């Protein structure tokens, strides 16, 4: 055992790199995999991008210890649902900040697809996982887009500097 002068439980909110990331802002999404009747898992993900090519791809950063990482490893498929203004509670539920009796998929109207569950009435995409690799403390998950459902988002939900913003 060693004794350090720094508090290991101190809030890392003042880390300059964390402040930089918080100022970037990002669209709030839920990544999900599995089946609603069985092993479905989901996670709020804001660190992601859509990459042009043939095929187009989506890549995102997923917590290595999340249930979603485990289900993705088994199914090799994922959905990405873009959240809108009224979906703050859904985001908080899938991030683990807000409990949901009966599980996170009880909050909102979720539909099964060949790629995993997606939220009804929202823009979403289904992807076939091509690669998962460690990146920092997370997994970078990359998949080829196989299906995309577009809706008109009147109020897209974003996260910046620790708060939700509707644009």
Automatic annotation (TrEMBL):
GO terms for molecular function: FMN binding; oxidoreductase activity, acting on the CH-NH group of donors, NAD or NADP as acceptor. SUPFAM superfamilies: FMN-binding split barrel. This is Flavin reductase domain-containing protein, FMN-binding protein. Coiled coil: none annotated. Residues 21-166 form the Flavin reductase like domain. It comes from Acidipropionibacterium acidipropionici (strain ATCC 4875 / DSM 20272 / JCM 6432 / NBRC 12425 / NCIMB 8070 / 4) (Propionibacterium acidipropionici). The lineage of its organism: Bacteria, Bacillati, Actinomycetota, Actinomycetes, Propionibacteriales.
């Amino acid at each position: 055992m060693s004794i350090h002068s720094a508090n290991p439980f101190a809030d890392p909110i003042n880390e300059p790199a964390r402040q930089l990331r918080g100022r970037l802002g990002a669209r709030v999404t839920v990544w999900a995999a599995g089946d609603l009747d069985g092993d479905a898992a989901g996670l709020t993900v804001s660190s992601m991008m859509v990459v042009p090519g043939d095929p187009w791809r989506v890549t995102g950063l997923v917590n290595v210890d999340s249930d979603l990482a485990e289900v993705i490893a088994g199914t090799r498929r994922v959905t990405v649902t873009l959240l809108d203004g009224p979906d703050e509670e859904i985001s908080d539920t899938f991030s683990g900040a807000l409990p949901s009796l009966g599980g996170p998929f009880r909050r909102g109207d979720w539909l099964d697809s060949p790629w995993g569950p997606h939220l009804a009435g929202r823009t979403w995409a289904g992807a076939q996982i091509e690669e998962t690799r460690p990146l920092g403390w997370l997994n970078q998950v990359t998949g080829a887009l196989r299906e995309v459902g577009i809706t008109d988002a009147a109020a897209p939900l974003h996260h910046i500097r620790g708060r939700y913003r509707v644009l």
